[in-house]
Amino acid sequence: FQEKIDMSAYPVESIRNFSIIAHVDHGKSTLADRLLEITGTIAKTDRNKQVLDKLQVERERGITVKAQSASLFYNYKGVNYLLNLIDTPGIQAQTVANFYLAFEAQLAIIPVINKIDLKNADPERVEKQIEKLFDIPVNECIRISAKQGTNIDKVLEKVIEKIPPPQCNTTDPLKALVFDSTFDHYRGVVANIAVFGGEIQKGRRIVSAHTNKRYEVNEVGILTPNEQPTHKLYAGQVGYLIAGMKEVTEAQIGDTLFMYKQPVEPLPGFKSAKPMVFAGMYPVDQTEYNNLKSALERLTLNDSSVTVHRDSSLALGAGWRLGFLGLLHMEVFNQRLEQEYNTSVILTAPTVPYKAVLSSAKLIKEY
Question: Residue ranges of the Tr-type G domain (predicted)?
Fold first, then answer.
């Protein structure tokens, strides 16, 4: 029997929600590990484990594929803070674009220069580049080595000082955003939620704005990064919810959950990512079509940046045309299908759509 945590001790003003965003191989997962260690969330014996990278493909390739969240507790200047960290996947070739999106959304941005322990590290040059490219003063950059644990406490202090608390209220009606979901064979769908208003607890009846289906909440809790049941989750907090959803399709990423008979304006959800690389995917044997279809549905719900359109080929039969953010994304998706859903597929050679404007000013689209 697990003692439930009382989350009422963390009012909105002592909550900070943040994520680590950077290019592939910039040490995000190692930094996440150090932050988990310094806040006592994990023991130091787990050194360099990449605790938040749980998938087999993440372990093998040393990359983060699926966003994971963890609630950290940290006492700073005598105040107990709740820091919700979302460890995002490395963003292939789109880090700068994401900086501008964050800047436009007026989010607080904390520049961190990692891997200063490397022989060929040149933090001065990097700081100058950051200043030139992003107009961020050199003295705002924090130089760290996530591997050695250098200056990690400074990152947490900056998160508390620079990031504002969430703009929400516990007295409002319940409004929760589903930002991820996983499937558990025994308990059904586990939905990761960010609570934007009100509070939620076991026994309450909730409704999905996306499907209009009703559910009764069986369990709520926080991720530390393992599931820790709590009595309630309050506005501004991030955690998980289990409510008898049988299919992953019921926990649509970007969906809004509200209390039965207390409808709210749904949250705007997420802007979909734009695929850059396209490939055909077909079952090795057509009798496997339905199994592959259900595996694709489950996996694309966890990775909404993949686009799926039905397709067919004279040689390969019925299949799909999938759109990915890049070649690594395509490889990882294929590997996850094989490892997590035990399916084998035929993947056609990837293509990139392009437009060509001829000198006669005639526009040609090629796929």
Answer: 13-90
